[in-house]
Specification:
Strand content: 15-25%
Shape: globular
Bound molecules: nicotinamide-adenine-dinucleotide
Number of domains: 3
Strand order of the largest sheet: 2-1-3-12-11-4-5-10-8-9
Largest sheet: 10 strands, mixed
């Protein structure tokens, strides 16, 4: 079966790691028709806009995209393209697996957790009121009246909102992910002891959803305690589901536990569209140098292959990446014990080693 996938090379070092990943995915033998589309700085240069309609149409048509990192400083008048993509396709679930691989320096030993972060609501919905504006005065007045509580006049205000629908669909996503991937437990992370209504709603909804999945264990943790537990006893955890802000922070904590952003994949998934990416940025200072590590995007490629139903290919690719990294010979500078190690290989040579490994070499 041929799969159609939108391929977004991205900015900075993006095109190099995307090329390395494309070659590695093709070497699995899975038949993919790549529809290459520019988004970001490269699109501004070629088409005068960072978010061309042709690229949007391609993602909508193909429903799956593999994306290189995008530079977010686009200049006045342009909004963040990552945010635009998330909004355009209502990509409500941010999937961030964090797994240690032998050969990658992980400070505290073995970790294998999947973070599911709600991507749309919470304090990140963009409902904010700046100090000194008439809108702020209006909102402050209304809140003071309704909440019988005083807000200082020199305070800015950001609104945290969490809906039942948003909580239900992200919790269902977490349980479905656990079920499809043989995971045993989902932990809902919150601060409902303090935020009884917003986080309380999230927790209550998570409990209700858990009843639809009797085969999967369910528990909850308060977010501060969760951070400590993840550092001290990561082996107790499996799939974590979190509202937006906690998810942002805890997923970077988990990435740190497995060796940093350079080795961590991610995906933004909605009802009908899924976009796979590395979680690191475009590392523009290394652009064009064939230097940076394509491992995170390759692991995102494994997530994509699983999403496409190509589990066997995903496992072969992940095993080949793990073997090359464990051997530690054909790896990029960041995976060498000393940073200036002259034996470090380039982006494409890392991909060559992964491809050789898949071929049995
Ligand atoms: P960055 O992740 O691009 O780079 C920070 C440093 O991490 C680099 O200088 C490099 O030393 C290292 N690094 C990153 N990726 C690496 C890799 N694959 N291999 C080896 N080393 C690697 O972060 P930044 O410099 O803060 O951001 C650069 C641009 O990327 C900014 O415009 C930022 O907003 C954007 N960004 C985009 C995304 C995305 O598209 N999803 C995510 C994060 C940042």
């Amino acid at each position: 079966m041929t799969h159609a996938v939108t391929l977004i090379p991205g900015d900075g070092t993006g095109p190099e790691i995307v090329e390395a990943t494309r070659r590695a995915i093709e070497a699995t033998g899975v038949d993919i028709r790549w529809d290459v589309q520019d988004i970001g700085v490269s699109a501004i240069e070629k088409q005068g806009t960072p978010f061309p309609q042709a690229a949007v149409d391609s993602v909508r048509r193909n429903t799956v995209a593999l994306k290189g990192p995008l530079t977010t400083e686009l200049g006045a008048g342009f909004r963040s393209v990552n945010v635009a993509l998330r909004k355009e396709f209502d990509l409500y679930a941010n999937l961030r697996p964090a797994k240690t691989y032998k050969g990658v320096r992980a400070p505290l030993g073995d970790v294998d957790v999947v973070i599911v972060r709600e991507n749309i609501e919470d304090l990140y919905a963009g409902i904010e009121f700046d100090i000194g504006t008439p809108e702020l005065a209006e909102v402050r007045g209304a809140i003071e009246q309704a909440a019988h509580s005083k807000i200082r006049e020199d305070a800015a205000i950001a609104i945290k909102y969490i809906s039942e629908m948003g909580s239900r669909r992200i919790c269902r996503f977490a349980f479905e992910h656990a079920k499809a991937n043989g995971r045993r437990k989902v932990t809902a992370v919150h601060k409902a002891n303090i935020m009884k209504f917003a986080d309380g709603l999230f927790l209550r909804t998570a409990r209700e959803v858990s009843e639809e999945y009797p085969g999967i264990e369910f528990e909850d943790r308060i977010v501060d305690n969760m951070c400590m537990q993840l550092v001290q006893k990561p082996d107790l955890y499996d799939v974590l589901v979190l509202p937006n802000l906690y998810g942002d922070i805890v997923s970077d904590l988990a990435a740190g536990l497995v060796g940093g952003l350079g080795v961590a994949p991610g995906a933004n998934i909605g009802e009908g569209v899924a976009v796979f990416e590395a979680i690191h940025g475009s590392a523009p200072k290394y652009a064009g140098q064939n230097k940076v590590n394509p491992m995170a995007l390759m692991l995102a490629g494994c997530l994509m292959l699983r999403h496409l139903g190509e589990r066997d290919a995903a496992e072969r690719l992940e095993r080949a990446i793990a073997d090359v990294v464990a051997e530690g010979k054909d790896v990029t500078y960041d995976l060498k014990p000393i940073r200036d190690d002259p034996s470090a290989v380039g982006t494409q040579q890392f991909a060559d080693a992964v491809i050789r490994r898949m071929a049995g070499g």
